[in-house]
Write a structure and sequence with these properties.
Helix content is about 85%, strand content about 0%. The chain is built from 5 helices and no strands. Helix 2 crosses helix 3, helix 2 runs antiparallel to helix 4 and helix 4 runs antiparallel to helix 5. The protein is elongated.
Length: about 160
């Protein structure tokens, strides 16, 4: 329960900050820039990952109990619980959750870089540094997404 409360409070704070920033940006410029659209995309991804996290948290605790308590597995099998269906559903959530979370994190990174681009446009020596950071971030983005899927060489019920 406390885990869910901390996640909910952190999510609420992030949403308040994002909405306040978007409102101030729109009030000041009467339009959204690339960094604002990336922020909107990040909030959608964060909302999706938070919902998945809330749905997954019970299964996560349940799967850990099954890993460390073999008597619980026998008890569930005797109750005709379809463990394979639960494990399959958990795996789908397990791969979706970090993917959407990485999308949210990198959308914020790229939003910050888009915002900084408008600032460093006038300072020529910083443009090269900005480009290096964009290249490093662009390379690390697919690596982080792919790492979720290549960390386990088995799929489905074989995993």
């Amino acid at each position: 329960m406390s885990f869910e409360a901390v996640i909910g409070a952190t999510y609420g704070f992030a949403m308040i900050a994002a909405i306040a920033r978007l409102m101030l940006q729109f009030k000041a410029h009467r339009r959204f820039f690339l960094d604002d659209w990336l922020l909107i995309f990040a909030t959608v991804c964060l909302t999706t990952s938070t919902v998945i996290g809330y749905v997954k948290v019970g299964t996560l605790y349940w799967s850990q109990e099954l890993n460390y308590n073999e008597f619980r597995v026998i008890e569930l099998i005797s109750q005709h619980v379809d463990l394979a269906a639960h494990i399959n559903a958990f795996q789908r959530l397990y791969f979706t959750y970090p993917t959407v979370l990485w999308l949210s994190i990198f959308a914020i990174k790229f939003a910050y870089l888009a915002f900084l681009r408008r600032l460093v446009d006038r300072i020529k020596p910083l443009i090269g540094h900005w480009r290096i950071v964009v290249c490093i971030t662009s390379v690390s983005f697919p690596v982080c997404i792919i790492s979720v899927y290549v960390s386990c060489d088995k799929w489905g019920l074989d995993a």
